[in-house]
Design goal:
GO terms for molecular function: DNA-binding transcription factor activity; transcription cis-regulatory region binding. This protein is an alpha/beta fold. The protein is built from twelve helices and eleven strands. Helix 1 packs across helix 3 and helix 6 packs across helix 12.
């Protein structure tokens, strides 16, 4: 970039002097004082090396050289204004769209109320939501297909930063007619580990959290693997087998009595739900707003 034209504010002011007929009028148009406008013109003259404005008791006007410089500067200043407007339009478009990826528990049971709060805060923001298991969510964020993600897995993939936004607890559930439903004692971890369950697929945060909680014991192969929490609950209600799901996902069924919750002895089944984004980046705009809403619990 040539050194004499790296800063365009002085040229823009010079064009206003030419258009409005004086430094005072140009200063008012730019929202600055007349002494400040005069100083800016003088700085421009010093940088170029010629007098651009002829000053007299009757006012000021462009010199011959000033007229030439103004003619040369006009398309440059107009192009810079077009560039600024284009960049602003891109930012508005970017800030008006938010791509979110979320694990099934978050997407189905928590995110709707967060998005409702988001709509109140920024009604013009368009949210595009994709859901999947925690591994799939992490991959979408890492590849740039999502601006931020919500995961429930206990492990954080390399390349992501995370903050806790909510807590959850795994619950062992059975159908009301299942033999375990009448138990008065807690289920032992080794008994649960040895029981074929209806489970989420590999990559699910719920499944991984259970595997870690029961890691001292050998886990039986699942009786069924389903990628839908709703499908798992339906299968449990049919009495096929027990399942372990997040407390958020079974709260309605436990309250209605269509599922029975059982306690597990000596095992910590609490977990955290986290918002994730790429290392080296910061959450800005709508992404930062949604993360803050989630952390406040909407």
């Amino acid at each position: 970039m040539p050194s004499r034209v790296t800063e365009l504010a002085g040229f823009d002011l010079l064009l206003s002097v030419a258009r409005l007929g004086g430094i005072g009028a140009a200063a008012r148009a730019h929202g600055i004082s007349q002494p400040a406008a005069s100083a800016r013109i003088q700085q421009l003259e010093a940088r170029i090396g010629v007098a651009l404005v002829e000053r007299s008791p009757r006012g000021s006007r462009l010199s011959k050289a000033g007229g030439l410089v103004a003619d040369w500067a006009r398309p440059v200043v107009e192009a810079a204004a077009d560039l600024e407007a284009g960049i602003a339009a891109l930012r508005v478009e970017r800030d008006g769209q938010l791509r979110v990826a979320a694990s099934l528990t978050v997407a189905e049971y928590l995110l709707p109320k967060w998005l409702a709060a988001m709509h109140t805060l920024a009604p013009g923001t368009v949210v595009a939501l994709t859901s999947g298991n925690s591994a799939e969510v992490a991959q979408r964020v890492l590849t740039g297909d999502a601006d931020l993600g919500f995961i429930e897995g206990p492990e954080l993939p390399s390349g992501l930063r995370a903050e806790t936004v909510a807590t959850d607890e795994l619950r062992l559930v059975v159908a009301p007619g299942h033999p375990w439903a009448q138990r008065r004692r807690r289920t032992r971890p080794e008994e649960l580990a040895a029981t074929p369950l209806i489970a989420r697929e590999q990559g699910s945060g719920t499944r991984r959290a259970l595997e870690l909680a029961l890691s001292p014991h050998q886990l039986a192969e699942p009786l069924l693997e389903l990628s839908s929490t709703t499908a798992i609950k339906a299968a449990v209600m049919e009495g096929i087998a027990p399942a372990v799901l997040g407390a958020h996902t079974v709260a309605t069924e436990l309250a209605a009595g269509t599922l029975v919750g059982l306690e597990i002895s000596g095992t910590d089944l609490r977990r955290v739900l986290r918002v994730v984004w790429p290392v080296g980046q910061s959450l800005r705009g709508p992404a930062a707003d949604l993360a803050a809403i989630a952390a406040r619990g909407a």
